[in-house]
Amino acid sequence: MEILKKPILTEKASALTEKSNRFTFKVDHKANKLQIKQAIEKMYGVNIVAINTMVVDGKAKSRYTKAGFVSGRSPKYKKAVVTLKAGETIDYYANI
């Protein structure tokens, strides 16, 4: 099971990083806070102070096509907001 799927690089997440040293990741739906903490500390070599997790509901999507009106949902996902120790940072692009 791959716990960390990808970092979330939105304007809101970037503002959170600049303001309070918090980083946001999309994680596996079955992962708990301890597993997320171990995965991030192993991958990035940082010390984590706190982790907040939440399940984000998928948005309703609809469009009109030649076949008619099509509606559905984007999938839900689990998000983890990680607070790091003061002075530490995560470089998302170091592992590429």
UniProtKB/TrEMBL annotation:
Keyword flag Ribonucleoprotein: yes
A GO molecular function held by the record: structural constituent of ribosome
Keyword Ribonucleoprotein appears in the UniProt entry: yes
Known partners and oligomeric status: Part of the 50S ribosomal subunit. Contacts protein L29, and trigger factor when it is bound to the ribosome.
Protein family: Belongs to the universal ribosomal protein uL23 family.
Function of the molecule: One of the early assembly proteins it binds 23S rRNA. One of the proteins that surrounds the polypeptide exit tunnel on the outside of the ribosome. Forms the main docking site for trigger factor binding to the ribosome.
UniProt protein name: Large ribosomal subunit protein uL23
Organism: Pedobacter yulinensis
Gene name of the encoded protein: rplW
